[in-house]
Structure formats: C-alpha cells, structure tokens
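Researcher: Next sequence.
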Amino acid sequence: MIVGVCQVCLHLPEGHSLKAKRQVLSSLKARLVQKFNVSVAEVDHQDLWQRTTIGIACVANETRYVNQVFDQVLKVIRSNPRLELLDSKIELL
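Model: Next structure:
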C-alpha cells in the first residue's frame, strides 16, 4: 500500500474576506474529491484572506498511480484563474 501526501501552498489574489476564500476553497476541494477520489483539507493559514495551504492524500497500490494523480491535481490547480500556486511538496509513505 502506498500513501501519498501532497502539500500545496496557494495565493488567492482576489481574496477580500475569509468568506470569499472559503468559497473558492470549497469549490476546489469538491472538484478534486469528485474527479480524483482524494482527501483534501486546509491545513495552514486558515485566518489569512489571500493565502492557504491544503493537504491532499491519495492511497493506492502503485507509486506510479499516486504520482499521476498528484500531477493531474496540480494541473487542475494551476488552471484555476482564481488561484496562484506558490509551492507544492509530495511525500510517499
């Protein structure tokens, strides 16, 4: 069993309130869960309007599959015009 964890730091340039930030994150999390069957949670910077860090977890039986899922997840995040990807880090357990 392979457990993959991806930590993604994001900037929300249009975030003018915590409510606006939550709306963008809620939409992103729902899309990632539905499309890739991963777990997603906000893990840092909960009190900042324009910055967040999310954690994404994926469990599979092959390392290659986990890497493919995370590549696709990052591609979806990069394609969202309301988000700016600052940093990402992938760990396999």
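Model: The mean pLDDT is 94. The chain is about 40% helix and 40% strand.
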